[in-house]
Input
Amino acid sequence: MKKIRLNIALHRRINKAVFIPSILAAFIFTLLLFYFTYHLTSRYINDTRKMKNRLGSVKSELTKLEKEGETANIKIASEKSLWNPRIAYCNFLIEKKVYYLSERLNFLETVLPSEIQVASLQWKNAQNQMELQLIAPGFPQVLSTYKALAPYDLDLISDFEQDGRFHMNVRLKYVSK
Amino acid sequence: MSVNKAKIIFAVTAILFSIGFFLFSGTWIFVTAKRLYWQREQQQIAKWEARKTELGHIKQNQKEWDEIEAEFSAFKKQRFIPKIDFYTFRQNLEMMIRNNNLKKVSLRFDAKEKTMIDTEKIRFHVNIVGDYPSIKRFIEGLEDLPWMVLLDQAQLKLDNSQVEALLDLEVHFAS
Output
């Protein structure tokens, strides 16, 4: 027959095997929380210091550069007003220099039909325009000349027949490639 | 282990844990909020950095403008005939006419004019006669000159097999 035991303790018995590890775990977790708080705080302090230093250095550098930039802008403005007209004039001269008459003559040699004779040519550098007096032996050549010159802003001033030959006065533009 | 002792241990651990938990969460919330605020400051820094680059360009620009005087005088030295060489140039022009088997009808020049870049401009009026290939060669020769010898106007007239050319040149001399 089994013996009956009575528990007459006033409080429940504490199970050490569960209580100690739980308390230990809670304690370790608490310690970890303190550690993370410390880590977070120290990192924050460090970052704040860095940020403040960076802000300070960039700001002081910027202030210095702004002053220099202001002086530079004033200087540039005065240099520009002095040099821009001169540069424009030099560019105008260079443009005039590279505007070749020989190129226009070569163009006429290629574009005009072989039977056409150039009686006179007038050319002005500034206007990019040639005025030509052409002589053709017959009317078909006149037509072929107009056809050949049509793409170059051809402006027909006059054409007439004299001594069996056709005279044409034309104006045209040639844009170099 | 007595119950009271266990209660004390539990209570101390619970207090420590609560302190740790509130401290940690408070710090985390504060740091996160601060970091969000920093984004504004970082944007400010980025703006300042951009402005710094812009100012750097201005300085570079100024450097380029500072060098322009030297560049301009080098250009003048290279492309403008020295004033003392006026007669040499005239002789060269006449030599070019002769070398291309052309006949000089006239060679005139106007009074010098001052230009805005402190140089002098003299207009030459060249009237020459010759065959077309020679005239063209002469024109090419003028165009190939390294100096500011500019062909301003030209008039070519065919007379029998000869071409009469009236050329207006603009010659720039360094003063």
